[in-house]
Amino acid sequence: MLYGNVARGFKPGGFNANELIDFAGQGYLPEFLDAYEVGFKTYWRDLRLVLDGAAFYNDYTDQQIGVQLNQTGAGDTIVAIPGITNAGQVDSRGFEVAANWRPTDRFNFNLAYAYTDATFEEYVQGPSPTAGPDSFALCGVPEGQTSSPQIRAEAGNACADFSGNGVPKNPKHAFNFGALYRAPFGDKGNTWFIELMGQYRSKRFLSEDNLAWMPSYTNYDLQVGLDFDRFSVIGFVTNLTDDDTIRSAQRNVDPGSPEGFAPGRAVIAYLPEPRVAGVRFIYRFERF
């Protein structure tokens, strides 16, 4: 089967809600996504092979991004607030392929690979809060949409322009695989099985500045079990190699390192679950 698909997504705009009562410069635009995909789904009977593939292109307009904004408060003080701003354009393109091969009644293999290139084609947070109207016009953002000195330093320019950088938390390469062997156990239709599963993810940028990233990792899980008519007994080991590579992290603030009114930058990184071994018992109730 060959197919193509075109779709549009919509997310409404709004205003950043905070302690300030002046809504000027705190609105953000609705987000639109135009998604295009073409692909194929095939079954090769003689090879006992299922092979699927697709190529996609996602075009975001005014994508809503969570940021730290500096706004003018009472007495012309600069107040740091969390908020949402719009990235003018974000493009995500790539392809994916998936295969399931069953060479015999006892063996089953599956593979899946995805390549994704996601880029901020246009993303400007804004100049200093004290910048004049000409600076906002030069940066191409509404007057009042500003950034902190730290954000501008991370961007390396006065407009806090991150255009051309990769979208955070997005692995360029993702790979899943599995191998299953299942055989009869006794002569009453019961079976035993052993299955190995794995996942690979390439490095992922932590934020829009692309200055920090999480490293690539590979994870393996193993399970062995017995399947009877009404119940199953399964032994399992997750994170088989006890890999401790950081897989999840988020940018945060560091109260111990203030930047004027606003705290400095910090990163919270989460260790993965260690190797865990156990046994599962599953009972299937009779359907009435």
Low-confidence stretches: none
Number of helices: 2
Give me the Rg, rounded. Answer: 25 Å
What's the helix-strand series? EEEEEEEHHEEEEEEEEE
Distance between the termini: 38 Å
The figure for the number of domains is 2
Number of strands: 16
Describe this structure in words.
This protein starts with a strand and ends in a 5-residue tail after the last strand. A 10-stranded antiparallel sheet has the order 1-4-5-6-7-8-9-12-13-16, with no helix packed on it. The chain has a two-stranded antiparallel sheet with strand order 2-3. The protein has helices at 133-139, 149-155; strands spanning 2-11, 14-15, 27-28, 31-44, 49-72, 78-101, 107-122, 173-184, 191-201, 204-205, 213-214, 217-227, 231-238, 248-259, 262-270, 276-283. The radius of gyration is 25 Å and the shape is elongated. The mean pLDDT is 87. With 288 residues, it is mainly β. It has 2 domains: 1-167, no CATH class; 175-288, no CATH class.
Keywords:
288 residues; mainly beta; ten-stranded antiparallel sheet; 16 strands; 5% helix
Task: Describe how the helices and strands are arranged.
Blueprint: E1 2-11, E2 14-15, E3 27-28, E4 31-44, E5 49-72, E6 78-101, E7 107-122, H1 133-139, H2 149-155, E8 173-184, E9 191-201, E10 204-205, E11 213-214, E12 217-227, E13 231-238, E14 248-259, E15 262-270, E16 276-283
Quick synopsis:
The protein is mainly beta and 288 residues long.
